[in-house]
Amino acid sequence: MNELVVSELHAGYGGAQVLHGVSFTVGEGEIGAILGPNGAGKTTLLRALSGMVKGRGSVRLDGVELLGSSPDTLARRGVAHVPEGRGTFMPLTVEENLRLGAYVRRSGVDADLDRIYGYFPALKPRLKQAAGSLSGGEQQMLALGRALMLRPRLLLLDEPSLGLAPLVTRELFRIVRAINEQERTTVVVVEQNAHLALGIAQQAHVLETGRIVLSGTAARIRADEQVAQSYLGYRV
């Protein structure tokens, strides 16, 4: 089981506190959308979940406490983080980037490369091409593919649509939903495009100034005009 339970999570940088007692749950094999304005603490939340930022409180995956573990330890436990800006290793080839995603594994890597090309067929002809020469959409696909090489139990996505054309964004979200459905990977996605995020998520949580101010099913939040205008920046 890959249920994520976050309880009273506090985190920040140095003396600056960013998250103030954040609590939410994402069910096993579900997609949870984290929404909110710029500066709400969404990126800090994902960094705390992946061990990049120290925090206090509790973060449990399948009942096992994750908080306090290093990013490397969390990767070995199946937590994959695709950061804002993709984090692609530009001088390395597409294949080298993908193989880096499987650095904690010793078997099945070649088979998983074929699995990734099934999700992202545009990457296969570019195996030996430097990642820095790819388009923005291809780089985002590569970053997601690299995370999937870990065979994650929990996938953290930070602003996957950032800088992408609408058509590319819709295709990327279609693939994320397919991954979730076919592999039962639990996903937490931070996304400014609330409409798209709510379209693939089962649960949604609105973060404002480091606190969860609203939680519910994605369908209910998406349909609530007052919520949409107050927190999500669009009209239903």
Q: Would you mind describing this structure in some detail?
A:
- The protein is α/β, with parallel strands linked by helices.
- A six-stranded mixed β-sheet has the order 6-7-8-3-9-10, with helices on both faces. Strands 2-1-4-5 form a four-stranded antiparallel β-sheet, covered by helices on one side.
- It is built from nine helices and ten strands.
- The radius of gyration is 17 Å and the shape is globular.
- It has one domain: P-loop containing nucleotide triphosphate hydrolases (Rossmann fold, 3-Layer(aba) Sandwich), CATH 3.40.50.300.
- It holds the Pfam family ABC_tran.
Write down how many β-strands occur, each being a DSSP E stretch of 2 or more residues: 10
Helical content (DSSP H or I, runs of 4+): 25-40%
In angstroms, what is the radius of gyration? 17 Å
SSE order, one letter for each helix or strand: EEEHEEHEHHHEHEHEEHH
Domain ABC transporter: 4-234
Keywords: Amino-acid transport, ATP-binding, Nucleotide-binding, Transport
Pfam families: ABC_tran
InterPro entries: AAA+_ATPase, ABC_transporter-like_ATP-bd, ABC_transporter-like_CS, BCAA_Transport_ATP-bd_LivF, P-loop_NTPase
